[in-house]
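Reading a protein record of the kind used here takes only a little practice. Think of the row as the fold of the chain written in a discrete alphabet. A record is reproduced here so that you can trace the correspondence yourselves:
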Amino acid sequence: MKKLTIAATNWMEQQGLTIGLDLGDRSSHYCVLDESGRIVVESKTATSPKAMEAVFGGMTGSRIALETGMHSPWVSRLLSQLGHEVIVAHARNVRRIGESRKKDDRLDAQTLARLARIDSELLCPVKHRSAKAQADLSLIRARAGLVRARTALVNTGRGLAKSYGQRLRGCNVRNMNPEKAEALSPELQAALQPLLAGIEAVSEQIVEYNERIEKLAQQNYPEVKLLKQVKGVGTLIALTFLLTLEDPHQQRRRSVSAHPVGARSTAHLRTVRSGLRLATMGTETGGTRRKEWEETSHHRHRTKACGAAASSLGQRRSLRTPAQEPDRDCGGCVGKN
């Protein structure tokens, strides 16, 4: 981290500063502009709570702009607690940075500072969820990670057995355990029993997560009961929906805003329910359903394309000039003079 001299630290006492902060995994660059837009100082600091507080904790309240990323949630909360106005820019919508050919952390920090100084709306600002909502949502995402890991382990075990000309008994991944390998050959049992024991342990952890999520919804989120009135929506999907939105009043798009149960169309509820189910269950069932949908969609589009081609060909064949059109009055024959 670059150390600031005594003369350079005077800028911390100035008013009306605008700061651009380009976050990195290990270190972050920042650029400070005064009221006239002149660069006061450029430096970098470690991406850690202690280092951030040491740099930005001793200055007066300023406007700080940063991009969305892995570290942006906790950094934005920390800077807000220090008394700064924090603008979290949507990384994909800031084309001046995302589509720039000069990828440099120092230049990105300058761009963030200048855009924030001109107009904060140019950064397409977003609002991160609270620390509590992020922690509760992490519980669901951790469970989804275990589901994906279990799916990969089960597919590995089934693939190894099939390549040996044998099959594991049972199709329910929740009941996969070393007993499923009893019908296999001895050498294959020795290879798969530790794998199946690991699958059984992961399944037990998933059940524990389910209990914790159910308890969390009952204690802290009474709105889950309202969402569960919709057919096919359970605790997991309802809680994911609530934690994803957190504050329904800040959403601009009607497609993601909160409405009373029953006020939305059935088609919309099916779309939300299906999307959240795939997001919360991991790839256990999502991959199969997605593949079936793609195959069905491909077949449907192919059929439609073939029908359109046949219709177009039929129209071309049916188009004839008046000289080629037979005379219906004389039975299709052209009369002679």
